[in-house]
Design a protein that fits this description.
3 helices, two-stranded antiparallel ribbon, single chain, elongated, alpha+beta
């Protein structure tokens, strides 16, 4: 298990985490969808928030997303859905590269 420390502050991520903070042993469901790790609280969850308020990132989920030890990840919060999404840095880099290629292609077309 590779833990991710929950950040503090006024961001949506912090607000979502604040719902979970102070709740060590909160049960979580961890799933992988489209190369992203989805984390939601649920009584039947197989994983728990650590006593130091760390999120578990199971090895199998990291493997499926191509996340290696020490690799930066992007945590995105959807507080309205009580959901955290973990993206591998290479996934974000690829998505941005595709977006930039489209921007440059559209710009060369005179748009």
């Amino acid at each position: 298990m590779w833990p991710v420390r929950m950040p503090l502050g006024g961001s949506p991520l912090a607000r979502c985490c604040a719902l979970w903070a102070g709740l060590p042993c909160l049960a979580l469901h961890v799933d992988v969808v489209h190369a992203a790790i989805l984390i939601t609280p649920t009584p039947a969850g197989a994983h728990v928030v650590g006593t130091r308020e760390e999120l578990p990132l199971p090895a199998a989920a990291r493997y499926l997303c191509g996340i290696t030890a020490g690799e930066p990840v992007l945590l995105a919060a959807l507080p309205g859905r009580n959901l955290l999404v973990v993206h591998a840095s290479h996934t974000i880099a690829e998505a941005l590269a595709d977006l930039h290629a489209r921007i440059l292609r559209n710009n060369s077309d005179g748009r």
